[in-house]
Amino acid sequence: MGGIFGFICKEPKDVSLINIGLRRLIYRGYDSAGVAYLGNNLTLNVMKILGNVSKTPLNISDRSTVALGHTRYASRGWPTIDNAHPLLDCKRKIAVVMDGIIDDYDKIKELLIKRGHVFVSTTDTEVIPHLLEGSKDYVKSALEVIREVRGIYSFAFLVEGVNKIFVASAGQPIVIGLGENCKFISSDLPSLTGFAENALIIPENSVAEISSEDVKVYDVNYNLVTPLTKRVKYQEQIAEKGGFPHYMLKEIYDIPSSLISSFSSLMEKYLSLAAMIVYGAKNVYVIGNGTSLHAGFISSYYFSEVGINVNVVSAAEFPYYALQNVSTGSVIIAISQSGETSDVIRSVKMAKLRGAVIVGITNSVGSRLALESNIYLPITAGPELAVPATKTFTSTLVVLRTLSIYTGLNSGKKDRKDINEFKENLEELSKNLLSRLPQMERQAEEVISKVEKESLYITSSGINFPVALEGALKFKEAALTHAEGIQLGELLHGPIALTNKGYPIVIVKPSEAQADDLYNKVIRSVLDRGSPVITVSPEGDIKSLETSRDLSPISNVIPLQLMAYKLGVKRNLPIDTPPGLVKAVVS
Ligand code: AGP
């Protein structure tokens, strides 16, 4: 995985411009970075660095009309300079950057070595420059790569002496920003903000040949095609920390406004259509990974309330047992904030082949999930750059809840006044959060002093149980601390034994009144055993906000996000870029 950013212009530009684009793509990987550009007489220059390009920018003072940069997540091959992109052919005339994974690179590499090619890296990417070597027609050769090399990837390359950029997509997104005097290449749309107002989405299995004047896109059969054009959005919010020390904290503070933008960006006609399809479905699966899966778990409470049973399945597990029950009449609600996670895309493709309708929920307009979906509901949380997801979780819940209410209009369990009531509750929560976030942040800092151990439990019941799972995930990512989310009742069936060792227990008060007795019983038992208890509720040690049951997961998750964040700060960790993690897991 990685982030690709490049430009080709009519007049020379500072090559260091590449740093701006790469910084915006840093969520895609930060193990190393590099750039290739054409200098005087179109000679190829390459520069690489180890580490995070947003902290140590590529130090180049040259100007050029064409440059191609990359920031890398080391998925195949260690983070070394040799493995940093761009990777070159034997003659050092072709420089390739890639995003994604090549499945069969070892066989291809073996074959190329037999043919006399010399490899300097242990990456999968390096097979591409060697496959392109000696080409007379780079579009044709890139199409051959796509046809013959298995995997989900996109790549771009420069060739010495050729004032063009070539771009190919075999499943990974790559877009071309159409600026006035320059064209920009990027792995995502938001990073193009300020560079271009419109962008072409390069379709899967196609190759683009880009000059400063025009863009030609070819399908696998070498026919010219017209790709989809999208507006580049999120202008005002682009990727700056706005005075916050970390993106994660900034993005938590974005939650109040993103709740509202997520609701108001949903279009009635798509909601109604999606709701009708969900209501009429033979069976409904909700799939996602990590945080998106946790949002999916909460949706089962929403849909159950309107009389619809949904099966919530990890997208990684979906093919193993759920897929066999998918056929025409099935609906897959696929959630992925990045819209690129391989497990989700793979499962969606398999389900489509069996006749399912895909309702995609994603924060990334030009993403693969958006393109693969029959109906697409945007999350509209704005760009989220910290690897630990925060505002996309709460905004995904807004989308899922709205969809469930619309589904309830079909089942007769809801009426239009429920939509208005939800909107009012959401606005009130957003307003209250805005004023209460600083206090929550202070409380999070105070209570975190109780967490000295390397492990903790987070527990709750009912609709807030998935919040415990989500909170635990945040502790793992932001604070590199083991945390386990567990149902309140289940805590008594064994896990409570460990509380003798003083493991802290964070208890999120359930919203369901039936769970009150259990809640009080668990607090007593844990305190009796000598473990520190941190309660999260409107009256708790860290105060969440009073709100409706459906919105309580939003109110309760924020204290957990803030606690995980504060523990990460206390331990001086790279909160936004946890070691070995990236924003979208492509495998
Ligand atoms: C969330 O904090 C994690 N970074 C991770 O679990 C993430 O939610 C998961 O990889 C799914 O990502 P997606 O929503 O982009 O598909």
UniProtKB/TrEMBL annotation:
<protein>
    <recommendedName>
        <fullName>glutamine--fructose-6-phosphate transaminase (isomerizing)</fullName>
        <ecNumber>2.6.1.16</ecNumber>
    </recommendedName>
</protein>
<dbReference type="InterPro" id="IPR017932">
    <property type="entry name" value="GATase_2_dom"/>
</dbReference>
<dbReference type="Pfam" id="PF13522">
    <property type="entry name" value="GATase_6"/>
</dbReference>
<feature type="domain" description="Glutamine amidotransferase type-2">
    <location>
        <begin position="2"/>
        <end position="213"/>
    </location>
</feature>
<dbReference type="GO" id="GO:0004360">
    <property type="term" value="F:glutamine-fructose-6-phosphate transaminase (isomerizing) activity"/>
</dbReference>
<keyword id="KW-0808">Transferase</keyword>
<keyword id="KW-0677">Repeat</keyword>
<dbReference type="InterPro" id="IPR005855">
    <property type="entry name" value="GFAT"/>
</dbReference>
<dbReference type="Pfam" id="PF01380">
    <property type="entry name" value="SIS"/>
</dbReference>
<feature type="domain" description="SIS">
    <location>
        <begin position="444"/>
        <end position="578"/>
    </location>
</feature>
<dbReference type="GO" id="GO:0097367">
    <property type="term" value="F:carbohydrate derivative binding"/>
</dbReference>
<dbReference type="InterPro" id="IPR035490">
    <property type="entry name" value="GlmS/FrlB_SIS"/>
</dbReference>
<dbReference type="GO" id="GO:0006487">
    <property type="term" value="P:protein N-linked glycosylation"/>
</dbReference>
<keyword id="KW-0315">Glutamine amidotransferase</keyword>
<feature type="coiled-coil region">
    <location>
        <begin position="412"/>
        <end position="443"/>
    </location>
</feature>
<dbReference type="InterPro" id="IPR001347">
    <property type="entry name" value="SIS_dom"/>
</dbReference>
<keyword id="KW-0175">Coiled coil</keyword>
<dbReference type="InterPro" id="IPR029055">
    <property type="entry name" value="Ntn_hydrolases_N"/>
</dbReference>
<dbReference type="GO" id="GO:0006047">
    <property type="term" value="P:UDP-N-acetylglucosamine metabolic process"/>
</dbReference>
<dbReference type="InterPro" id="IPR046348">
    <property type="entry name" value="SIS_dom_sf"/>
</dbReference>
<feature type="domain" description="SIS">
    <location>
        <begin position="273"/>
        <end position="413"/>
    </location>
</feature>
<keyword id="KW-0032">Aminotransferase</keyword>
<dbReference type="InterPro" id="IPR035466">
    <property type="entry name" value="GlmS/AgaS_SIS"/>
</dbReference>
<dbReference type="GO" id="GO:0006002">
    <property type="term" value="P:fructose 6-phosphate metabolic process"/>
</dbReference>
